[in-house]
Write a structure and sequence with these properties.
single chain; mainly alpha; three-stranded mixed sheet
């Protein structure tokens, strides 16, 4: 076979081998004779290794082409599917068995915005797939009426503003509960609600302040009802973080006024809810406290993910910043961190439970990241939980639900934790 054209392929290679995102652009060129691939491979590699990327892709013209001699016997079927039959190009069934291809290689760094968004998109897809494993099938197949885009934007904005005002003005615990629940449901179905929320400093501050107010208890309501409201609050805030990594408003709101919202959020979730003595042995309240611990873990997971792996858009968000806000509260956060570890060990001991895979990943992500970045968290883990972790976390690939989209990432996180404490 003889190929009448040469292919120019641009490969964008991510650092993370799990993602390995490739962008391929093919251009028709005139015939060119075969060349020695070793010479061009060496030249192109030295060009790449001497380039400083600074998180952006260089211009294609600045790269040296890499020419490779390839066998068409193995790739003929794939070349046929590329539809290269432009004017002046053809694929013959007779003749030479080699052809040339030009490849431009680009490397992405951890700080590249494109790489961070790809990484976040991959994790979002795995989390969404894990949720679908236990979510019921929606039987609603009725066609929905279509409305004009402009009217949808106007109505959506008006409804959000009204909901935001109602949440901030209502003092009734029951009304606030259902309003926050409505906000959370709206955000899970419409990304625009999250855009409005991360621009709404007043509402965000009000919800974060409620976390502290009802964690201590007001004495004006049933304590179990207040804990249920805390669970709803943390679930709503977690939903606002979920899949909003591309919104620069989120990073700017969290860092506004010297990180006042972020600091207050971390301080208010760094303690367990206070309970009257007569409720400490109440089974219902105990179950609610366990559920609150789970929502706290998921919220802290979203915060750590936002500051460590998501784009920060030029702000000073970082894991060290989060740790600097948590460590002064360690007298109250220490027991919470310890409870998270115990919760993770309990979950991993339930070998193969698919329903808890997402929570298990969140627990070990939070425990591992804080153990690696906080000296006091690491000391607590080693002094109180080292032997239990080594026992229950041995061979995690046998204990985490198979066929779960998060299985590989959870196993990786467990091994990182074991490596940090070895």
């Amino acid at each position: 076979m003889k190929l009448g054209t040469s292919l120019r392929v641009r490969l964008v290679k991510a650092v993370d081998l799990m993602l390995a995102p490739l962008l391929m652009v093919m251009h028709h060129q005139k015939d060119s004779p075969p060349v020695n691939p070793k010479k061009h491979l060496s030249a192109s590699y030295s060009s790449l290794s001497s380039t400083s990327w600074h998180g952006t892709l260089p211009s294609p013209r600045s790269q040296r082409p890499l020419r490779l001699i390839t066998s068409l016997d193995e790739t003929a079927s794939r070349l046929d599917r590329l539809n290269l039959s432009d004017s002046g190009s053809s694929v013959s069934s007779q003749g030479a068995t080699t052809a040339t291809a030009d490849l431009d290689l680009f490397l992405l760094t951890d700080s590249t915005l494109f790489y961070q968004l790809l990484q976040a998109a991959s994790l979002n897809e795995k989390i969404a797939g894990t949720k679908e494993l236990k979510s019921p099938v929606n039987g609603d197949t009725k066609p929905k009426r279509k409305k004009s885009h402009e009217r949808l934007i106007m109505v959506r904005g008006q409804l959000y503003n009204q909901l935001s005002a109602d949440i901030q003005s209502n003092k009734s615990l029951e009304k606030r509960f259902y309003l926050v629940q409505e906000l959370s449901t709206a955000a899970s179905n419409d990304m625009n609600i999250k855009k409005y929320f991360w621009k709404d400093l007043d509402l965000c501050t009000a919800l974060v302040e409620d976390l502290g107010k009802y964690r201590l208890g007001t004495g004006e309501n049933n304590r179990a009802d207040e804990i249920e409201y805390l669970i709803q609050l943390e679930s709503c805030l977690s939903e606002m973080f979920r899949e909003s990594e591309h919104l620069s408003q989120r990073a700017h709101l969290l860092t506004a006024n010297s990180f006042v919202v972020l600091r207050l959020l971390l301080e208010n979730i760094s303690s367990a809810p206070s309970l009257p003595t007569h409720l400490t042995s109440d089974a219902e309240v105990e179950d609610l406290c366990t559920e609150l611990l789970d929502t706290t873990t998921k919220l802290l997971f979203e915060v750590l993910l936002a500051v460590s792996e998501h784009p920060t858009f030029g702000t000073e968000l970082s894991v060290s910043r989060v740790v600097s806000f948590l460590e002064p509260c360690f007298s109250t956060f220490g027991p919470v961190y310890s409870s998270m570890i115990e919760r993770g060990l309990f979950l991993i001991s339930r070998t193969g439970a698919a329903s808890t895979t997402l929570l298990l990943y969140c627990v070990f992500y939070v425990v591992e990241v804080l153990c690696r970045n906080s000296a006091v968290c690491r000391r607590l883990l080693i002094s109180s939980h080292l032997e239990d972790i080594r026992y229950y976390c041995a061979n995690p690939e046998l204990k985490i639900a198979r066929f779960s989209p998060l299985q590989g990432l959870t196993i990786e996180r467990v091994y990182k934790l074991l490596q940090n404490i070895s």
